[in-house]
Specification:
The protein has 121 residues and is mainly α. It is built from seven helices and no strands.
Length: 121
């Protein structure tokens, strides 16, 4: 008998961690690719350890910022649900948005290095 949680148990744990709201993509993955849900939960425990060096709120804000910068709507939704559970202040969330926006703007400037080099000639 396996000690591994079932897909339903994993989805239930995920849901509880996100104010009872799972992203639709995770729900669908649970139906058609349960092994991936198990792997995702395992990866989550590795990346976001309960006893990690960062506070839970900080981990949520970092995750939200990365999700914003990469355009992951499911992760944005999940982290906003989690931020509601953690009672993260609106000002902290908005500051995270500003940081993500600035990082993206800086990426564009960095990507334009070749353009600036060619225009300099």
């Amino acid at each position: 008998m396996s000690n591994q949680p079932t897909t339903e148990q994993i989805l239930d744990m995920m849901s509880k961690a996100m104010d009872g709201k799972l992203p639709r993509a995770i729900e669908l993955a649970g139906e058609v690719f349960p092994e991936m849900v198990a792997e995702h939960a395992h990866s989550s425990a590795f990346a976001l350890p309960q006893d990690g060096a960062l506070e839970a709120e900080t981990r949520t804000l970092i995750y939200l910022g990365v999700a914003l910068a990469t355009g992951s709507k499911a992760c944005i939704e999940a982290m906003m649900n989690k931020s509601t559970m953690q009672n993260i202040a609106k000002e902290k969330i908005l500051e995270t948005v500003k940081i993500a926006r600035y990082a993206e703007a800086t990426r564009v400037i960095g990507n334009a290095e070749i353009v600036f080099e060619k225009l300099k000639l």
